[in-house]
Design brief:
The protein is an alpha+beta fold. The strands form 2 sheets. The chain has a 6-stranded antiparallel β-sheet. The protein has a 3-stranded antiparallel β-sheet with strand order 2-1-9, with no helix packed on it. It is about 15% helix and about 20% strand. The chain has 3 helices and 9 strands; from the N terminus they run H-H-H-E-E-E-E-E-E-E-E-E. It has a domain of about 120 residues: Metal Binding Protein, Guanine Nucleotide Exchange Factor, Chain A. The chain is globular, with a radius of gyration of 16 Å. Bound molecules: zinc ion (ZN). Zinc ion binds next to loops. The site of zinc ion (ZN) has 8 residues, from loops.
Length: about 190
């Protein structure tokens, strides 16, 4: 099955109750992630790094209180609050905790929801889990390396994936093309 056929299959296979919302990082049904092609990299892909064992107490000392609450207590920032909503430069979005590259500017789009939105993460950089906190299933995604919560993924995004990765701006750090990526936290 080629990539487009796979995406079609994914969409049709998961159409069940289509309670789609374009208004928030809220209602939708669970969605498996779709990998993004390597061509989305703005900076060079990093060397594979092992999962971090940094404790929550250590993260608390490294991050602001707001960053910590989102990344390690799965909170959500107020809609419309992130300066990254207006960021249109070419570059890479890193995990604000461990600095693993998570998204390319090539997949960013204006969703109108009030949160920075992307139609795909960089391949292999996020993991997902089922989230029932609101009483119905959502797909939470987080940084593969440090486990820091980023947001939720919904099926009302644009082509080519049809997915919307609804991300907290405080959980990301933007690095424009031409500037070196900061060293990952270890
Ligand atoms: Zn991370």
């Amino acid at each position: 099955m080629d990539r487009r056929a796979f995406l079609r299959h994914l969409t049709w296979a998961s159409l069940a109750p289509a309670a789609l919302s374009v208004s928030a990082c809220s209602p939708s049904h669970s969605t498996p992630p779709v990998s993004a092609p390597d061509s989305l990299w703005v900076h060079a892909p990093p060397e594979a790094a092992p999962a971090l064992q940094t404790s929550k107490e250590q993260w608390r000392t490294l991050l602001s209180a707001d960053e910590y609450r989102i990344l390690f207590e799965a909170d959500t920032e107020p809609p419309g609050s992130s300066p990254l909503l207006e960021e249109t430069r070419t570059g890479t979005y890193l995990c604000a905790a461990c600095r693993l590259p998570l998204f390319s500017s090539k997949t960013k789009y204006k969703s109108g929801t009030g949160w920075p939105s992307f139609w795909a993460p960089l391949e292999g950089q996020v993991d997902t889990k089922r989230d029932m906190k609101l009483g119905y299933p959502r797909t939470e995604y987080h940084c593969r390396r440090c486990g820091g919560h980023q947001g939720h993924v919904f099926e009302d995004g644009p082509e080519p994936t049809g997915l919307r990765y609804c991300n907290n701006g405080l959980a990301l750090t933007f690095v424009p093309a031409g500037k070196p990526l900061p060293s990952p936290r270890t």
